[in-house]
Automatic annotation (TrEMBL):
It comes from Paradevosia tibetensis. Ring cyclization and eight-electron oxidation of 3a-(2-amino-2-carboxyethyl)-4,5-dioxo-4,5,6,7,8,9-hexahydroquinoline-7,9-dicarboxylic-acid to PQQ. It comes from the Bacteria. This is Pyrroloquinoline-quinone synthase. Keywords: Oxidoreductase, PQQ biosynthesis. InterPro entries: Haem_Oase-like_multi-hlx, PqqC, PqqC-like, Thiaminase-2/PQQC.
Length: 254
């Protein structure tokens, strides 16, 4: 399949080196990452009520619980055992192991702390249609595109730690229903994400050897920033502007 033009970067500026590629990737993050989204400004600034924070955590659970599925698909794209060895800890980071807690369980601590029923959260019954479409599109992307693009699509994680820092301090400061115990998910990601992002960045710098391949890498990152952005657009439309789609979670009356 060829690159989709909807996500194209400027084609008049071919990227001629790994350094130019990195500069362009960082520019994409600085201008398109969902840290810039108005919903995040409200979330971190203490401007949402508990029901709106519940809606965010409930929808994000679908993203979180799909990440190890996505990573299992990425892993399946590689014949190279070394890449599989490197990549597979991501699955364990989220799923945990029989005797160790993983990110999904930590996310459930957050939704439980917010008063949501765990069976309801895990069922994904109340999520927004756009959440499902966007997250599923990410899983399909890593299945359908080249292994290089599959790895490149994880590069939003380069920009996640700053956002997580802002989220931890902002939410602890502003919401009386948030405490450090329910924020351990983000605390843990501060250590995990940089390792993952640095590996993925080094990989694409090394393996994208032509301007065309570098453009594919950039477009994969743009695609992923859109996956993240559109989920917040949908949350904003439903829970800030009050247009909750049929069947989606409805917060209890305040
Ligand atoms: O809270 C966030 O804003 C955020 C963003 C992202 C991201 O940039 O994709 C991830 C995460 N969190 C995260 O917790 C996580 O485990 C994760 C895995 C991935 C990935 O693409 O493989 N992104 C992200």
């Amino acid at each position: 399949m060829t690159a989709m033009t909807a996500f194209s970067v400027a084609t008049d500026a071919p990227l001629n080196s790994a350094e130019e590629l990195e500069t362009q990737l960082r520019h994409i993050g600085a201008t398109r990452y969902h840290s810039l989204h108005p919903f995040h400004k409200l979330l971190h600034g203490g401007k949402l009520d508990k029901g709106q924070v519940q809606a965010w955590a409930l929808n994000r659970y679908y993203y979180q619980s799909s990440i190890p599925i996505k990573d299992a698909v990425v892993l399946s794209r590689f014949r190279d055992r070394n890449i599989r060895l490197e990549w597979r800890h991501r699955i364990e980071d989220h799923d945990g192991n029989f005797d160790t807690e993983g990110g999904i369980e930590r996310w459930i601590k957050l939704t439980e702390g917010l008063g949501l029923d765990t069976d309801y959260v895990e069922s994904a019954e109340g999520i927004l249609p756009a959440t499902r479409f966007a997250v599923d599109a990410y899983v399909h992307f890593v299945r359908d595109r080249s292994p290089l693009e599959a790895i490149a699509s994880s590069l939003t994680e380069l920009f996640a730690p700053n956002l997580h820092e802002e989220r931890i301090s902002g939410m602890l400061k502003h919401y009386d229903f948030i405490n450090p115990n329910v924020m351990t998910y983000f605390q843990r990601r501060l250590e995990q994400a940089p390792r993952d992002a640095n590996f993925a960045l080094a990989y694409v710098k090394d393996h994208a050897r032509t301007p065309e391949q570098r453009a594919l890498v950039c477009n994969a990152l743009i695609f992923k920033t859109n996956v993240l952005w559109v989920q917040l657009d949908a949350l904003y439309h439903a829970y800030v502007e009050g247009n909750v789609p049929p069947g989606a979670f409805v917060p209890e009356a305040k």
